[in-house]
Model the fold of this input.
Amino acid sequence: MREMHPSQTTDATPAPLLEVRDLRVSFDTPHGLVKAVGGVSWTLSPGETLGIIGESGSGKSVGLEAIMGLIKSPPGHVAGQVLFEGEDVLTMKESRRRQLRGEKIAMIFQDAMSALNPALTVGTQIAEVYRLRRRCSQTEAERKAVELMDRVKIPSAKSRVRCYPHEFSGGMCQRVMIATALALNPLILIADEPTTALDVTVQRQIMTLLADLQREDGMALVLITHDLGLVAETVDRAMVMYAGRVVESAPVSALFDAPSHPYTRGLIRSMPRIDGASGALHAIGGTPPAAGRMPRGCAFHPRCTHRIDRCRAERPALRPVAPRHTAACHLVEEMTHD
Amino acid sequence: MPYLLRRFLQSLTLLFVLVSFVFVVGRIIGDPALIMLGTSATETALDQLRENLGLNEPIWRQYLVFLGDLAQGDFGVSFRYGFSMMPSDALRSEGTPVLPIVLERLPATFLLAGTALVFAFALAVVLGCLAAMYPRSWIDNLVNVISLASVSVVQFWLGLILIIVFSVQLGLLPTGGYGSWQHLVLPALTLAARPLGRISQVVRSAMLDELSRPYIAAARAKGVPEWRVVFVHALKNASIPIVTITGDELSQLLTGAMLVETVFAWPGVGLLLIDSLGRRDLPMAQAGICVVAALVILVNLAVDFAYTVLNPRIQMDNRGGRA
Amino acid sequence: MRHTLSVLALVAAQAGLAQAAPEGTFTVAVHQEPQDLAAQGVYKEINAPGLRNVLETLIATDPETGEYIPVLATAWERVDDRTVRLTLREGVTFHDGTEMTAEAVATNISFIWSPDSAFTIQEYAGPGVITARATGPLQVEVSSTEPDPMMEFRLTLTGIASARQIEENPAEHFGTPIGTGPYRFEEWARGQYWTASANPDWWGLTAEDAYGETTQQFETLRFVFRPEGSARNAMVRTGEADLATNPSPEDCAAAEGNDGYSCITGPSDAYLYGRLDQSLHAHPALQDMRVRKAIFHALDYEGIADLIGLASVPQGQLGTPDMLGFNDSLSQYEYNPDLSRQLLDEARADGVDVDGLVVEVVGRNTTPRVGSVTEVIGFFLEQVGINTQINVQLPDVFNPRVRIKGYAEEAPRAMMQVHVKQNASGEFGTNLLGNYACPDIDDPSGASRSSVHCNPEFDEKLAKALTLSGEERDAALQELVGFLHGQYPILPLALLDKGYLIGDGYDFTFGVDHRFLAVNVTRAD
Amino acid sequence: MSAVDTNTAALPEEEHDRAVAITWRAYAKALLRDRVAFVSAVFLLLLLIAAAGAHLLAPYDPNHANLGARFVPPLGTARDGGFHLLGTDELGRDLFSRLMHGARVSMSIGLLGALCSGIVGITLGVLAGFYRGLLEDLLMRAVDGMMALPSLLIALFILFVIGPGFANLILIFTLLHWMVFARMARSLTLNHQQSTYITAARAIGGSDRRIILTHLLPNMVSPLIVLFTLEIAVLILSEASLSFLGFGVQAPQSSWGLMIARGREYISSAWWLVVMPGAAIFLTALALNLVAAWARAITDPVQRWRWLTPPRRKNQPVDHDA
Done:
C-alpha cells in the first residue's frame, strides 16, 4: 500500500504530479484536418481533484485520451507536452507509457457496460494487469480480483468473480471498472463521465465510492463531466472547455461564485438548482460548432449573448481573473464585475 | 438445449431433403439404367438392369426401398469399380458395395481439407489482426489483395500454376500423389488460398469493429500490452463471425477438395466421385455426394455448437439464422 | 533418345552367378489405374501396366525374332489344326503356394477364353471357342472348335493365375492377382498405386532359359497412377519415379538436353486408326466410295503423326513391315484436299446426300491426345466441306458404341471411331478378322464384333487365308490388305512408338511381349 | 469512446443529404478518380466488346488448325510469318483468338446465368417480402436449406444425370443460385416497405403491382446490381470448374475452363496454354469483384461520402494552428 499523501491545502503549492502544456490534438478526416483540442494547459497536484467540464465534442475526452497515449497516429496528431513527474508522456517509448498506464495513471469510462470486455470474466479483467505486471499465478490473481471487488463494495465478490459483465447491472459494472483501475494503486485516476450512463441513485453511490477511495489512497482524480452538479460536490478545481479549448479555469468555489466566461455562466444558469430554488432553466442558444467548422475568432461567439465585434476576429487568450482563476474572454473584466 | 436440438432436427431434415433430391434426380429425371449403361446400351441390357435394380416397381415403393437401404448404410453396389467386363455382363456377378469404398477415401480428404483449413485459418487470423491493427498499411493492402484474389482465382488453375512453378520448373515438390508431407504441400496450399482470403477479410473487418469498441480503449488505458489487446480482448469477441466464415469455408473446402484432388491425383472422396461420374457409376456417385453433403451439413451444425461455447452472451434460443 | 532393341539375355551365364538379395524399390509412373488386375488383362499392356511381372503366360513372343519362346511351358507342338499340346515347366508354384499343375493351367485357359466370361480378351478370340484339358501331370492340350493357326499367339496372351483362387474365390481374382511371376502382388491402394514384392521362389532364378536381362530383383515394384503426362515427367526428373510410361514427344525432346533421365523409344505394336462406318447401319453417304475416299484424302497424316508425337505415318495399312501379310506395294493415302472436294462434288452431282452427312469423330478419352486428334480431323474434314461433330467419350460410353450391338440403335450412323489398337500377333490375320470381317449380329462376342466393313467375298478369302501358314499365309494376307486399301474402310492414322522416361540409374530394354518387365531393368554402372 | 468516432460521427450525417442528389456525372467522376475501379471497368468493357465482336475482331479464325505453327510461344511468330500475341496451341490455333471466342461462351454463361437466377430470385424474394406469411416462411426455409448444400457438387450430379452443355449449365446455375438474390431482395423489400414513400403510395391507393414495380424495385436496383456483378464472377468460376471436370461446355465449343483442361496435357512444354485462359478468368473475376466493391461503396449511403469527396493529399503537413 502506498503511503498516504497529505491532504491538500490551498496555500501549499507542491510540485505538480501531471503537467499538461499546450496540448493539441487533431485528426485527418476526408474533410481535411479537424482540430479536436487546440492548445490546452493545466496541472494536477498529488491528491487533487480536477474537474473538466464541457459539452460533448468539446475535446475534454480526447484531451485525456491523448494524455493516456490512446490516440492512434494516423489519423490522430498530438502535439505539446504532457509531463508526468517531469517526464514527457508524449515522447516516451510506448512500452514506458504502457507501464505508466495502470501503474501510475488509470482511467475509467463513461459506459462501463461497454468498456468491459463481454467475452472475459470480470475477475480476469480486474486482475489482468495485476497479473501481467506482478507475474502472479491464476489463483493469486483471482484472490486479488476478489479483494478489489470487495474494496469497491461488490457484494458476494467471491461467487461473482467468474461472472461475465452482462450478468452485472450498470452500476456494478462501473464498480468493476473502478476495481480494474485500482488494481495497481495508480497515482492518478481519470474518470471520464463515470456516472452519466447510470441512474441518479446509482450515480451518487459511485461518486461516494470514488470519493472514499480517493481519500483512502490519496490519489489524484480527474473527473470529466458535463454535469456541473457533480463538479460542485466533488472537485477542488474545475476547468471549462469549449470547442477544444479551455475557456475558464478556477477553484470550484470561485467558478460557481464568480463565473467569468459567458459560456460558464450559461452552463451554470442551465443547471437545475440543488436547493430547489425556483426559476426557469436557461439553455444556451445554438449548438456547439462541429469539428472542422470552427468559427473564426472566439469559438463561442455565435452563441454568445455578450459578443462584441472583436470576438469575431480575434480569439481571446486565457487571462487571469483572480489568483488561480483564468478565463478566455475579451470582456473578462466586465464579466467579473458584472 | 432446445436451440441445439432444433438445429439438429433441421439438419436431419436437410439431409432427408438432400437424399430425396438425389433420388428424384437419379430416378425420375434420369433413368438409372440408362445412366449406368450409357445411351447406346441395348434394350435387353437395359431391361435386365431395370429388373435387377427393381426399377419396374412403382416409384413410391422404390423410394421407400431406397430410404430403407440408406438407413442401413446400403447405397447399392458398383458394377464399375474393379470390373473389366461390360456392365451388362458384370450384372451376373454381385458387384462391390459402394459405401465402404467411399468411407475408405474419407481420411485422405480430411487430411487435405484439415491441413488446408488449419494453415489458412492460422495465417488468416494473424494477417487479419495485423491488418486491423494497422489499417491502410501495406499489410492491410496485402490482406485486401489476397482476399480479392482468392475469390477471383480458379482453384484448379492455381494448382496447375503451382505445379508448373514448384514441380515442373523448380522440381522442389512432387506434382501429385499421396504419402509424404511433401505430397501434401501443394494441394493444401491450393486449397487454402480461398479460405485464407475470405477468413482474413472477415477477421480484419470483425477486428476493426471490435478494436473500435470502448472496452478496447479501456483495456489499453489500464495498461494491457497491445498484443494482448488484439489477440485476447478483441479476437475473442470477433470470434463469432470468424467461426461462421470458417465453417462456411470448411464446407467449401470439402467441395473444393474435389477439384484439387483431381489436379493432384490425391486419393480422396473427391477424386473417387469425379472418377465414378466419369465411369457412369451411379451408386458410387450417389454415395459420394450423400457423404460429402452430409459432412457439409455436419460442419454447419458443428459451427452452431461452437457459438454456444464461444460467446457467453449468446442466448441461443433467440438467435436467428446465420447470414 | 536411345533406340533400344531388346536382346535376349544370356541368362545361362547369369544363372551361375550368386544371387544378390533383392533390394530397393523401383517406382513406375503409369498413365492409368487398372480397372482390375484379372489375369485376362495381361493380354494388353494398357489394361494393367506391370501386371505381367506378377502373372506369366505359357509362351511369349520374342520381340526381335518374332518367334515364340518358352515361359511357363517348355515345349509345345501341334496335334492338329485345332489343337496344341504343351509341356509345362516343372516345379513352378503360384504365389499362394499351390503348384502349377496341368489342371490349374487348363482351368485358367478355359476360364479366360470362355465366351461366358465375356472378358475383353475376346477381341483376340479366334474362329472357334478355346478350351483346355490336362492330359498328364505336366501336359495340357488346348483346342479350338474351329481350325486355328494362330493358337500359339493366343496362348502368348493368356495370363495364368492360381486355379485355387478362380475356383474358391472368383471375386478376389479381379483385385488380388496370384501368379507365378518374379514379383508377387502386395497391395492395390485404389486411386494411388499398386505394389508387388520380389518372389524368392521364382522359377526364373534358377532356370537356364528364363526371359529377361537380369535375375537381380528389386525388393518392391511400385506402380503409381498418374494420368498427367507432365506429372509423370516431373516424377522421373525429380527421382520420385524411376520409370514413366507414355511420355509426350515434348517430354522426350526435353529429356535429351537434361541430366538425370532420358527417353527410350522404339516401335510398338499399337496403331491409331479412324474406323469409318460404311456398311452396317451406316449413313447412305458413307456407303458411297467417293465420299469415303474424299475423307481419306482430306487428312494431313504427317501433321497428325507430328501432333501425336512418337508416331510415324503408316504405309496405307494397319501394321508395320515386319508383320506377316504386310503389303509393301502400298503407300499412305495422299493429303489432297482438292481431290477430296472434287470427289465430293462428283458425289453431290450424283445425288448423294453429302451435305446431310455429319461425320461424328469420336475418340475414347484414354487415347493419348485424342482431344487434339479428333479436333484436327474435324477441322480437316470441315475444310473440304464435310460437316463434323467432335466427341471425346469415356470408355464406358465409347466401348459399347464400337461393338456391333450398339450400331443398330444409332442407325443411320456416320461415326469415325478414333482409337488405338494393339496387334501383338506379328501378322495381319487377327487384324483383318477383327477389323474388316463382316460382323455377325448373332455373335456379339465374336472376333469381328466391332467391324465396320462387310463384304462376303472378302470374308470367304480371309477365312481361307487364316487356315494357311507360312509363305502362303503371307501372300494371301498381302492380297487382302491390298484389296482393303482400295475400299477406304479404315483410316490408318498413325503407327505409335513406345516410349519410356527412365532415370539415369537404370537401363531398360524392351522385353518380350512389348511389356514393362522389371527383369529387363538393369542398374547402370 | 474512441476519439475518432466521437469527432467524425457527426460528419457523414450531413453528407447524406447532400449525396441524395448525386448524379451520374458524379458517379462517373468518382469512377475516374478511383484508378483501380476505373481500370477494372475499362477492362470489362473491352472484354465485352472482344467477346461480342470476336468474329470480327479476332486476328485469326479460332478453329483454324495450322499444324505447321504448333506451340508458338506468346509474342512469337510462326514459320509462315503469322504473329501470335499469346502464342498458339497444340493444333497451331491462335490462342488470343481462341480466348476471345472463349470469352463469348464464358461471359454469356456468366451473364445469362446471373440474369436467370436473378429474375427468379428477385421475383420470389420481393413477393416473399411483400406478402410475408407462409410464402415467406417456406421460401426462406428453402433458401437457408439450399445455401447449406454444396452447390458445385449438386451441379455436378445434376449435369451427370441430364448431360452437360450450355443450356443445361444455365439451368443448373439458375437452380442453384437464385437463393442469393431471393435473400437480398426479401430483406430489401422488408426495409423499404416500412419507409414512408411506400406507405404514401399505399395511401393513395396504388395497386400492389404498381407499388412493387414503380416504387419498390427501382429503389432496390443498386444493391442488386452489385450482387449481380458478383454473381457473374462466381458463375464464371463455376463454369470453369465444371468444364474442367468435363461436365460443362463441350468441345468443339470452347470456354476458358475447357481450354485450361486441354492445356493441362502440355503443361510442361507449353505453359501458356494453361496460364493464359486461367489468367483471363482471374482478371475478369477480379475486375468484376473490384467494380462490385466500388459500386457497393458508392451506393452505400453510409460510405459513399468517402468516395464522392476528393481525398486529402498525401503527406500534407499537419498544421495545428491553421
DSSP finds 13 helices and twelve strands in chain A. The first strand of chain A starts at residue 18 and ends at 29. Confidence is low (pLDDT under 50) at residues 1-12 of chain A.
